[in-house]
Design a protein that fits this description.
single chain, alpha/beta, Rossmann fold, GMP Synthetase, Chain A, domain 3, 2 domains, eight-stranded mixed sheet, seven-stranded mixed sheet, 19 helices, 31% helix, globular, binds adenosine monophosphate
């Protein structure tokens, strides 16, 4: 047995041999000529010269050998439907949608924006784009018109695929009015909008622009659309994520590197096998949805369970009933969801036969020990915390239990684990940029060049931003910053201690405080605002706003509600602050920089630390008084 440390070391020191071996997991039309081109750091190009296709690897190759096996299982407790698509059926649906896209002039390199609820057509749409080399950009359905408009402008899609509505807790959530408003707001106008009409909400059809999916599906049924073989470094998709500026970044991914990285992770990390069922409770609007609802499980030849609904409806046993019914072997969720379930009767977990389940993976936010222990005891299977980001596309820190001939690293509560193969992780001193050599020192979690396959290639349309944002923040070193604080204990386990930037994490959703600030500032009553993330028992963090009014006499509950509604309308309810406090002054440095960190510390009842640069101490005193600290 080799140690995991040795295995990891080999993935770094013998990088090309390691990944050349992994590349055999997928089908290539033409084999790569070079494993990794590092000639233009910090960029990296994986499997140069190889041609492949994500849809072929996710669908066609399984449809060829196991056409009748389940591929996509769709369960909606919102509309009371369950549909199982075999690989052959999935292939047919994807080809039909690919034909629809091609008939609208969508081809290789064109962007297709997908703004959809958790319905099978969303999966068909992503795979159809991948099939014909179009670049998909999925926007989370919970985002509203202003968020959507900024993404439309950045991605400049030729076509948008959407639906009349989603449903949440039995309540219809119309999508089309938000989309129409976003298109009005955006400078870029898509040529066409393909509408899936679920019959949930009537909508206005814009003639000449809006297309009806059902009619076109009938017209193109049975279409044969060959996959377009793409050089490994062509773009598969972009996915927007929040950063420190108000403008979201389009995380851009390749084709071949992503396919190989996912295939390897499905085996080594998740231990998923063809013919089994994988259940991720995420949403296709997030990176977990891309990697582990759609591409990862399908590439591995598993059936993927796509769920539309709440974890507690019709009752808190719904997920476990699905595990039993579809014999789920691997499940992926987020700590927040577990904290929600924890409030319900634990007997609900025992009601179902969960013997198929081998492990539950949790990611997206820190897994607190009580939550981890509760679910571990309730399920009786390993709970695997895993840490990663939209940018990395697959886990960076976790424990991989399925590497043949390699010793298993035991899990440790509070830590997601150790660096995964391929990631040359370093903890660096924030001030000096030097590696931290002693255990238990807090530093910035960074990755040395090159990032392994599957990680972002660049920021869509902005190489300069990619370099400036991710590779230039540590003094004297060109390393990738995760913008997370980390600490390594004496046994090599890494602990995540929060973000180094102004990004917050609400119920596993990553939000930029600047985006929320920009939205609140656009309300006519607001002169200035600061938004910080404050610790919350259920959601991990919530956004709290401190706003200065143009007319202080307007302060009150009514205005607070109005500001929240304003954010709902612009960004979506996910970004709504939990409270909006009205203050007369915000804490700033003498040079006018907002001291968000001090504000956050005070809001959490902590010591705000060094305040020598604070211009007017009364700003913090006011917040303390307001919150009764
Ligand atoms: P996202 O890009 O939305 O996936 O958010 C990524 C961020 O979520 C990371 O940079 C971390 O701050 C946080 N995060 C994700 N997974 C974990 C985890 N297992 N433990 C602690 N923080 C996590």
């Amino acid at each position: 047995m080799n140690t995991y440390a040795d295995f990891h070391r080999r993935s770094i020191t013998d990088r090309d041999a390691f990944w050349a071996e992994q590349a055999r997991r997928i089908d290539w039309q033409t084999l790569p000529e070079q494993v990794c081109d590092t000639s233009r750091p910090p960029f990296a190009r994986w499997f140069v010269g190889g041609t492949t296709n994500l849809c072929h690897n996710a669908v066609d190759r399984h449809a060829a050998t196991r056409p009748d096996d389940a591929a996509l299982i769709w369960v909606s407790t919102e509309v009371g439907r369950e549909v199982v698509y075999s690989f052959a059926q999935l292939q047919a649906e994807v080809q039909t949608l690919a034909a629809i896209l091609q008939a609208q002039g969508v081809g290789e390199g064109d962007r297709v924006l997908i703004y959809m609820p958790m319905i099978p057509e969303a999966a068909f749409a992503m795979l159809a784009c991948a099939r014909i080399g179009a670049i998909h950009s999925v926007v989370f359905g919970g985002f509203a018109s202003v968020s959507l408009a900024s993404r439309i402008d950045d991605a400049a899609p030729k076509l948008i695929i959407s639906a009349d509505a989603g449903s949440r807790g039995g309540k219809v959530v119309p999508y089309k009015p938000l989309l129409d408003e976003a298109i009005t707001l955006a400078a870029h106008k898509p040529h066409k909008v393909l509408m899936v009409d679920r019959g949930l909400a009537a909508f206005t059809v814009v003639s000449g622009r809006d297309l009806d999916y059902a009619a076109l599906r009938a017209q193109h049924a049975g279409a044969q659309v060959p996959v377009v073989w793409l050089e490994s470094n062509r773009i598969s998709y972009t996915l927007y994520t929040s950063g420190t500026t108000g403008k979201p970044k389009g995380v851009q991914r390749d084709v071949g590197g992503y396919a190989v990285a996912l295939a390897t992770s499905m085996d080594y990390i998740f231990g998923g096998k063809p013919g089994e069922t994988y259940f991720s409770t995420s949403d296709i609007g997030w990176v977990v949805g891309h990697s582990y609802i759609i591409y990862g499980p399908l590439i591995a030849g598993m059936a993927t369970l796509m769920y539309e609904g709440l974890p507690v409806s019709p009752d808190a046993a719904i997920w476990w009933s699905l595990v039993e019914k579809y014999k789920v072997t691997v499940m992926f969720s987020a700590p927040t969801a577990v904290r929600v379930l924890k409030k319900h009767d634990p007997a609900l977990l025992k009601r179902h036969d969960l013997s198929s389940l081998r492990a539950l993976f949790l990611a997206g936010e820190p897994l607190d020990e009580p939550t981890g222990r509760w679910i571990a005891e309730a399920l009786g299977v390993p709970i695997i915390d895993n840490y990663w980001q939209t940018e990395t596309g697959w886990p960076l820190l976790t424990v991989a239990h399925h590497i043949p001939g390699v010793e298993t690293v035991p899990t440790r509560f509070g830590s997601p684990g150790v660096p995964m193969y391929g990631y040359d992780v370093q903890l660096l001193d924030e001030q000096t940029g030097q590696p931290l050599t002693e255990p238990n020192q807090k530093g910035v979690l960074t990755i040395a060049h090159p990032l392994p396959p599957g990680c972002l290639q660049t920021v869509w349309g902005d190489d300069d931003r990619f370099v400036r944002t991710y590779w230039s923040s540590v003094p004297g070193q060109q390393v990738y910053s995760t913008f997370d604080w980390g600490l390594r204990d004496a046994d090599g386990y890494t602990f995540i201690l929060g973000r180094t930037d102004d990004v917050i994490n609400v119920a596993g959703h990553r939000l930029g405080t600047r985006e929320i600030e920009e939205s609140i500032s656009s309300h006519p009553a607001i002169a200035e605002v600061a938004v910080v993330g404050v610790a919350d028992q259920l959601k991990g963090q919530v956004a709290i706003a401190f706003a200065v009014l143009r007319d202080p006499a307007q302060a009150g509950m009514a205005l607070e509600g109005e500001v929240m509604k304003h954010v709902d309308g612009q960004l979506g309810a996910v970004a709504r602050p939990a409270r909006v406090h009205f203050v007369s002054l915000l804490p700033k440095t003498r040079s006018g920089k907002l001291l968000r960190r001090a504000l956050q510390a005070v809001a959490e009842g902590r010591d705000p630390g060094d305040l020598t640069t604070l211009d007017d101490p009364s700003a913090l005193a006011q917040v303390k008084e307001l919150l009764g600290r």
